[in-house]
Amino acid sequence: MDVIEISKVLSNKTRVNILKWLKNPEVNFPPHQDIDHFDDGVCVGYIQDKTGLSQSTVSTYLNSMQNADLVIPTRHGKWTYYKRNEAVIQTYIEALKNEL
């Protein structure tokens, strides 16, 4: 876990919002059509719709979040679903408490 890299990712309001929305996906996103749960996260299309940004921008954001280990991707056929990596988020918060 790299505090600096995660802080860079979190310096963007939309990426922070994505993490907030993924904290309670049942509240923030419509039900999935193909699966009836959010166990594997939220489909990129739903995240894109909520942000109002282009698919390429959202993919770039999710990729940077994945590289910082803030989200975990899961493939279902041609679709990728993302959920928060709670362990890394908690480690980051603890590191901030201890180091600052």
From TrEMBL:
Pfam families: HTH_5 (PF01022). One of its GO terms (molecular function) is DNA-binding transcription factor activity. Gene3D superfamilies: Winged helix-like DNA-binding domain superfamily/Winged helix DNA-binding domain. It comes from the Bacteria. Keywords: DNA-binding, Transcription, Transcription regulation. The keyword Transit peptide does not apply. SUPFAM superfamilies: Winged helix' DNA-binding domain. Residues 1-100 form the HTH arsR-type domain. This is ArsR family transcriptional regulator.
